[in-house]
Amino acid sequence: MSAAANTQVLMLGLAGSGKTTLLIQLFGRLQANSGALRLRESPRNLARLEAGLARLNQGLPVQHTPTGDEFVQLLPAENPVGAPTDLAVPDYSGENLRRVVTERRLPERWRELATGSGHWVLLMRLSQHPQRPDVLSKPLGTLVVEAQRTAKGEDPDQLPLDMWGVELLQMLQYARSEIGRPRPRLSLVISCWDELEGADATPPRATCAGAPGPA
């Protein structure tokens, strides 16, 4: 790869999916030169990154992005042969990314990020997104409880997480196809794996490898 060729990795996810925590952990590893990539210059908003890293080192959670404070944090890195690789994380509060799908509108900010990044990483936190009621197989009592939860403020028309992810990726890909850009590389990351029911010390890769195939 030429040293002039720049790869931008775009990390996406709903609020609370772990984007900021992952960004700060990556920043710490880049600072320590503990991987294949290394920082090539000081990132913007360095004070925010260092404050977040200090909290993680103390065993504290990273603070959420303040309401109305939205920007794109870039970690300017390079690989061992000097090729630039920028890690881009849109840092936003609330349900900004969810509204992209529900409103069927891709703001110019997201369009630029989608078309300018050759690798997308989508983070999903499954424990935040319960399954929809299954009226064919679930007991009546379970359906009543789930209906009560919906009455307390949950949106009954909100897309399930998997469907939301597909819709989002299709919208971002359409923005790329409009200007003739090829499909990007895509990575799906299941964050906070240990929160899932039945999770143990088995790594996700091993769990998925041992899952039974289709009947």
Quick overview of this protein structure:
This protein is of the alpha/beta class. It has a single domain, classed as 3-Layer(aba) Sandwich (Rossmann fold). The chain contains seven helices and six strands; from the N terminus they run βαβαββααβααβα.
Structure, explained:
There is one protein chain. A hairpin with a 5-residue loop joins strand 3 (71-78) and strand 4 (84-91). Residues 150-154 have low confidence and may be disordered. The protein has helices at 19-32, 46-57, 96-102, 108-116, 140-151, 161-178, 204-209, and strands at 7-13, 38-39, 71-78, 84-91, 119-124, 185-190. It has a single domain, classed as Rossmann fold (3-Layer(aba) Sandwich). It is of the alpha/beta class and 215 residues long. It is 36% helix and 17% strand. Helix 4 crosses helix 6. Strands 2-3-4-1-5-6 form a six-stranded mixed β-sheet, with helices on both faces.
Task: Give the SSE layout.
Blueprint lengths: L6 E7 L5 H14 L5 E2 L6 H12 L13 E8 L5 E8 L4 H7 L5 H9 L2 E6 L15 H12 L9 H18 L6 E6 L13 H6 L6
Parallel strand pairs: 1-4, 1-5, 5-6
Antiparallel strand pairs: 2-3, 3-4
Helix pairs in contact: 1-2, 4-6
What attributes does this structure have?
6 strands; 6-stranded mixed beta sheet; 215 residues; 7 helices; alpha/beta; single chain; Rossmann fold
